[in-house]
Amino acid sequence: MTAERSAPIGFSPWSADEPGRPAAAAASDRPRFETPAIEPHTAHVWSFDLRADAERLARLGDLLSADERARAGRYRFDRHRRRFIVGQGTLRLLLGGYTTLEPAEVRFALGEKGKPSLVQRPDVHFNLSHSSERGVIAVAREGPVGVDVELLRDLADADDIARRFFSRREAAAYLATPPEQRSRAFFNCWTRKEAFVKALGEGLFVSLDRFDVSLEPGRPARLEAIEGDAAAAREWTLSELAPAEGYIGALATRWRPASVRAWALDPPPRAPEP
Description:
By secondary structure, the chain is of the alpha+beta class. The protein has one domain: CATH 3.90.470.20. Helices cover about 30% and strands about 25% of the residues. It is built from seven helices and 15 strands. The strands form five sheets. Strands 2-15-5-9-8 form a five-stranded mixed beta sheet, covered by helices on one side. A four-stranded mixed beta sheet has the order 1-13-14-10, with helices on one face. The protein has a two-stranded antiparallel ribbon with strand order 3-4. The termini are far apart.
């Protein structure tokens, strides 16, 4: 059994010397991404900046489906539209690399409870999350993955949210945390719960207070119990992520990764915009 990690997983800068350097396809000038192979029992996680200049935004926007472009057009604020386009475009680039599909030809299907899957390659599991100007994508072949990222910040109503949505054990542990560590404890709990729910594929059908996660800063990320059942929780693995300065994240799998490889596609943002 793999030992639990007490430190968060950091993201190495993506090196141009590694296989998988992003490039424009020579013949069509369409962007593509040649990703590294996923070893057995391994998850890959990518962190990227959601900010983009007009040229990059246009190139990524060209990869989107008609439905995705229509959805982007419904956003009221430009920054939300930009974040959606960059997130979906980057997801398409990465999945194209993992499957050899053209990014624009990647097709998604939504499960009964809203979890997306890859139509042409259902054996490639993925998940996308974003917060402020940071996006995170997890990819694996072993089984479903869930990932979540949050900008670390103080929330005026964090105590009330914890009382309403955390389990009783989690709320008690959070409220017992020293005030200067509460923001991290809160987002430890939130990202781990969100990652688990996303890996489970149940969406809003799962009550957040029906399962317990560790949240105390410095403790390994762990699913403690599902409806009081510790044995059921041991089927799952949670990993704490450090995708960029000022951000916190979590990865959830129903299998135990021998390795989690994590890369940052670009420098971390200097001034996140909430």
